[in-house]
Design brief:
There is one protein chain. The protein has 364 residues and is an alpha/beta fold. It is built from 13 helices and 14 strands. It binds nicotinamide-adenine-dinucleotide (NAD).
Length: 364
C-alpha cells in the first residue's frame, strides 16, 4: 500500500522523537511491502522563525493533502513572549481546526513492565489501568473569544466557553461507539453543578444513551473524576469530556501509567485522515540531549497505521516490538525504576538507542 504522511517534527525534542518514529515506519514498510512517502511540514516555533507564522497556509495545505499527519511537539521558551495568535501552540490549534479533527483519543494503559513506575500504590495498580479518554478537541474555551481589557482601572481577562448541541452530540457518539467496542462503560465528565455548557452536555449525553442500550452511561463531575483517576482508576473504561477538562484529565491519567513519554494519541474527524501525536510537549529541558522517550511517538505512528491506514497487523507488530524492548529491560531515563535493585536489572538507553532496539524487535 502507498500512503502519504505529512510529518511535523516541530520544536524541542520533536525532531528527535519523530526521527525514531520514521525509522520504525521505514522498517514496517520494508517488512510488509508498503511505501510511506513523507512530506516535512514546518509548524510551531520553527515555522515562526522561518515564516513569521506558526502555521502558514501552505503548510496547512500540505497536511490537508496527505493521508495522515504525524506530529512531534511544538513550543518553547523562545516564543513565549509572542502575541497569542502568533505562538507555537496556535499553529497546533489551527491545524486541528483546519483538519476538522474534533475527537482526541488518549489511551491510559499501564504496561506491566512499567508497573513500578506508576506513582500509585501497588494495590491500586494491581487492579489494572486500562481506559481511554475521548476529548472534544476543537470547541469549548480554547476556541472561544479571548480578550484582556482594562475595566474600572484594572486589567480584566475573559475567555468564552460555549458548546452547541451538535458539537456535543458528535463527540458523544464517539464516546458511545468507543465504549461499545470495549467494556461498554462510558463515563461522561462535566461540571453541571456550575456550568450551563455542562448542563447541555449532560442532557445530550442522556438523550444519546437511549440509542446505545448496550453501553452503561455514568455521569461524573470533573473534580470528582480527577480524584477517582488516582483513587480507583480500574473503574474507568471510556471517559468522554469537553476540551479543557480532557486536556487536564488526560495529563493526570498519563502520569498514573508511569510516564508522559509513553502515551500516544489520535485525533479524528469525519474522514480517515487523522492527526497522530504523543501527548507530551516539546520538553525543552531535555531537548538535544538524546534522552527523550520516543515510545509515545512510535505508538502514535502505530495508531496511525491502525486507524487511518487500516493496517492493524502492522500496528500490532510495532506494539509488540515496544513490549519486547521493555521486556529486555531497555528504559529511557523517564521510565527507569527509582528502586536501585530493580534499576540494576534494566539498561538505560537514549532516544536513538530505544528506537534501534524497537526496530530490532520488529517482526511479522
Ligand atoms: P512537556 O510535556 O513538554 O514536559 C513536561 C515534563 O515531561 C518535562 O520534565 C519533560 O522533560 C518531560 N517529558 C515530556 N516528554 C517527554 C519524553 N518524551 N521523554 C522524557 N521526558 C519527557 O510539558 P511542558 O514542559 O509543560 O511544555 C513544554 C513546551 O511544550 C511548552 O512550550 C508547551 O506549550 C508545549 N506543549 C506542546 C504540546 C504539543 O505540541 N502537543 C503539548 C503540551 C505542551
Amino acid at each position: 500500500m502507498n500512503k502519504h504522511i505529512a510529518v511535523i517534527p516541530g520544536d524541542g525534542i520533536g525532531p528527535e522523537i519523530i526521527k525514531q518514529a520514521l525509522a520504525v515506519l521505514d522498517a514496517v514498510a520494508a517488512i510488509y511491502g508498503h511505501s510511506f512517502c513523507c512530506t516535512e511540514v514546518d509548524m510551531g516555533g520553527c515555522a515562526i522563525d522561518a515564516w513569521g507564522d506558526p502555521l502558514p497556509q501552505e503548510m496547512l495545505d500540505k497536511c490537508l493533502a496527505a493521508d495522515s499527519v504525524l506530529l512531534g511537539a511544538v513550543g518553547g521558551e523562545k516564543w513565549n513572549h509572542m502575541p497569542s495568535d502568533k505562538r507555537p501552540e496556535k499553529g497546533l490549534l489551527r491545524l486541528r481546526a483546519g483538519m476538522g479533527v474534533y475527537s482526541n483519543n488518549r489511551p491510559a494503559k499501564i504496561w506491566p513492565q512499567l508497573a513500578s513506575a506508576s506513582p500509585l500504590k501497588k494495590s491500586i495498580v494491581d487492579k489494572g489501568i486500562d481506559f481511554i479518554i475521548v476529548r472534544e478537541l476543537i470547541g469549548g474555551i480554547y476556541f472561544g473569544d479571548h480578550k484582556t481589557e482594562v475595566a474600572d482601572g484594572q486589567k480584566k481577562a475573559t475567555d468564552i466557553l460555549s458548546y452547541t448541541e451538535a458539537e456535543i452530540e458528535r463527540i458523544g457518539r464517539i464516546g458511545f461507539e468507543t465504549a461499545r467496542k470495549r467494556r461498554g462503560l462510558l463515563c461522561s465528565v462535566e461540571k453541571s453543578n456550575v456550568l450551563d455548557s455542562s448542563r447541555l452536555w449532560k442532557s445530550v449525553m442522556h438523550r444519546l444513551a437511549a440509542e446505545y442500550p448496550d453501553v452503561t452511561l455514568v455521569d461524573m463531575l470533573v473534580d470528582n473524576c480527577a480524584m477517582q483517576i488516582v483513587k480507583n482508576p480500574a473503574q474507568f473504561d471510556v471517559i468522554v469530556t469537553e476540551n479543557m477538562f480532557g486536556d487536564i484529565l488526560s495529563d493526570e491519567a498519563s502520569m498514573i501509567t508511569g510516564s508522559i513519554g509513553m502515551i500516544p494519541s489520535s485525533s479524528l474527524g469525519a474522514t480517515d485522515c487523522g492527526l497522530y501525536e504523543p501527548i507530551h510537549g516539546s520538553a525543552p529541558d531535555i531537548a538535544g540531549t538524546d534522552t527523550a522517550n520516543p515510545i509515545g511517538t512510535i505508538l502514535s505512528a502505530a495508531m496511525m497505521l491502525r486507524y487511518s491506514f487500516n493496517m492493524a497487523e502492522e500496528a500490532e507488530a510495532i506494539e509488540n516490538a515496544v513490549s519486547a524492548a521493555l521486556d529486555e529491560g531497555y528504559r529511557t531515563a523517564d521510565i527507569m525504576p527509582s528502586d536501585e535493585q530493580e534499576a540494576a536489572t534494566c539498561k538505560k538507553v537514549g532516544c536513538s538507542e530505544m528506537g534501534r532496539q524497537i526496530i530490532n524487535k520488529l517482526k511479522r
